[in-house]
Amino acid sequence: MQGWGRVLAVTAGRLIAILVAVNAALLVVGLVVAKPEHLACEGPRVGLVFDVGGKNDKSFNEAAWRGVQQAKHELKICVQTIEPSEGADRESALRALAAAGVDLVIGVGFIFSPDLERLATKFPEVVFAGVDYAPSQGVGEIANLVGLQFREHEGSFLVGAIAGLSTKTQNVGFVGGMRIPLIRKFEAGYIAGVKHVCPGCQVQSAYAGSEPKAFADPSLGQDLASAQYARGADIIYHAAGKTGDGVFAAARQRGMRAIGVDSDQFHVAPCCVMTSMVKRVDRAVVEVAQELVAGTLKGGMRELGLADDGVGFVNDMNNAAMLPAEVVAKVNELRADVIAGRIVVPAQ
Amino acid sequence: MSEVIAAVFSLQVLRMAVPYALAALGGAITERSGVIDLALEAKLLFGAFTAAAVAHATGSPLAGVLGGIAAGMLVAAVQCLASLRLGADHVIVGVALNLLALGGTRFLLQLFYGEGANSPPAPGYGDAVLASPIVWLAIVASIVVPIALVKTKWGLRLRAAGDRPDALVAVGVSPVRARLYAALVGGALAGAGGAQLSLAVGGFSADMSGGRGYIALAMVILAGWRPAWAALACVGVALAERLSIELQLRTAAVPAELLHILPYVLTLAVLVVGGARRPPPRALGSR
């Protein structure tokens, strides 16, 4: 046996050498692969930080990504995006963009709320926007912070009505991601929608967890959905980000129907996605970018609902086979009722 | 009540148990040879990523499974290189590999697909649980591995490497080589477990292993490093997971947060009550 000191010294030396080599290699690859877009770009600069699901989650983040792409082409702005991994680097991603002189920093997801508040006071010359922003307790309006909220319960009410009108088993399901008030809005609206058109229908609901990871565990989503289908549900609506991919996997395997969320998710499972509750994050992002370019962007809360097409459901060529015209007609009636205030959809 | 039991003990549980069980079988083999296998999480994650990437590129889920197996073996090879050839601490190597897998899979996603969290859709095994070759691999492996540990030269040498490496040296066999062969087989199994994670849902997403490798390692230790028992313990974890889902669907009385920790609480309870502690392989973690 060698002495401990010697073993450690040799190991440490070798490890450092290996780590340096690996880092150098990664750096070279990174420099070759990365496109330093922002360096060549002139115009107002918009930075966007994604939530746990990541850019192409085919759902919530993707809607924001579409919005910022559209803004880039229409408004000739420069766009930088960051996809942070789990944990603390969310705040540093926002901070890095703000410190780099970006004019508008957008955080996609409720999880950025406290970070946005902190950074907005620290960088008064930068405008921050939070999709699904929820003010922390005791925090008032901040002049350079735009909160973008949606009336998800209204959109969920409509897809709930679709589920209630379409179920053959009088039994439908809901799979939520993280158990928080925001996702409760989806659930409450959905249940109200089902019960409105089908008072005798049963709604099963389940959540994937109580931490942000609950939005990124498709395997668990598949388990939850399988259990609901096995218990008689024939349509499941999810509000669970990437976890929802597992709901679609279960629907595919069992030939059952599912309802997508945030973006049009038809293409994730063309067999089974009868509609999607779309949340027009893209529209909100474009709007904020337009105001930035026009110089009229101000802080404050905004809420987009059915009335301003901030939420809605998908009804197009793709899903026409699964969505009969009489169902669409009935749901459009309900939509008008909600907009006119004749139906008040519960948010909790 | 009988309804709950029927739902809990369905074939779906088998599908849920497979990633845990394959990782645990791999971990048991690796640990029995004397290598601490904290890197199970890395093998699952790299296996899941590679399986999705290969299946996406070739259109064949079977090629994806093979890719996942190869990735698990590669991680095992690096693990052996660092902890056996370079003499690094096994635990530190494991932690490093797990962290590398978290960041590395994101980096590879960025490199191949220009995004940091999700792979493009990959073909997988749909329909029946038993249609997936990975499920069968898990079933066959939990029968064959315990026998192979006792009956084959490979098994004898790896157990000797884990308990009495000096005895191996005395008969002119390299313990390092015996451990490498053990870890490669273990890595292959864990990599296949990762393939199940991504191919079952049709694509890879970042961090999708969700700590399953750590649970599997806990089951290995709980089972006293006996592979078949470890696999069985993993079925127990899947049952508890399934039970927590059923309860969540049926009762509003118990907070879901409490139900979410049920699998872990049950695991812990079994660990504490489980009595009959078996000692680890004597040379576990030696360099």
Characterise this structure.
Chain A has 348 residues and is of the alpha/beta class. Chain A folds into two domains: 40-150 and 282-304, Rossmann fold (3-Layer(aba) Sandwich); 152-279 and 315-340, Rossmann fold (3-Layer(aba) Sandwich), CATH 3.40.50. Chain A has eleven helices and twelve strands. The N and C termini of chain A lie far apart (66 Å). The model of chain B has no long low-confidence stretch (mean pLDDT 89). The N and C termini of chain B lie far apart (52 Å). Chains A and B meet through helix 1, strand 7, helix 8 and helix 9 of A and helix 2, helix 5, helix 9, helix 11 and helix 12 of B.
What is the strand and helix layout of this fold?
The complex is a heterodimer of chains A (348) and B (287).
Chain A: H1 4-33, H2 37-40, E1 45-49, H3 60-75, E2 78-82, H4 89-99, E3 104-108, H5 113-122, E4 127-131, E5 145-150, H6 152-166, E6 171-178, H7 181-197, E7 202-209, H8 218-230, E8 235-239, H9 243-254, E9 257-262, E10 273-279, H10 281-294, E11 300-304, E12 311-313, H11 325-340
Parallel strand pairs in A: 1-2, 1-3, 3-4, 4-5, 5-11, 6-7, 6-8, 8-9, 9-10
Antiparallel strand pairs in A: 10-12
Helix pairs in contact in A: 3-10, 6-7, 6-11, 8-9
Chain B: H1 2-8, H2 11-32, H3 40-58, H4 61-85, H5 90-113, H6 133-151, H7 153-163, H8 165-170, H9 175-201, H10 212-222, H11 227-250, H12 256-260, H13 262-273
Helix pairs in contact in B: 1-11, 2-3, 2-6, 2-9, 2-10, 2-11, 3-4, 3-5, 3-9, 3-10, 4-5, 4-9, 6-7, 6-9, 7-9, 10-11, 11-13
From the alpha-carbon coordinates, what is the Rg of chain A to the nearest angstrom?
23 Å
How many E-type strands of chain B?
0
Shape of chain A: globular
Beginning-to-end CA distance, first to last residue of chain B? 52 Å
From the N-terminal CA to the C-terminal CA of chain A, the straight-line distance is 66 Å
> Strand order across the biggest sheet of chain A?
2-1-3-4-5-11
Note the run of SSEs of chain A as H and E: HHEHEHEHEEHEHEHEHEEHEEH
> What is the typical, i.e. mean, pLDDT of chain A?
87
Query: Which oligomerization state do the chains in this entry correspond to?
Result: heterodimer
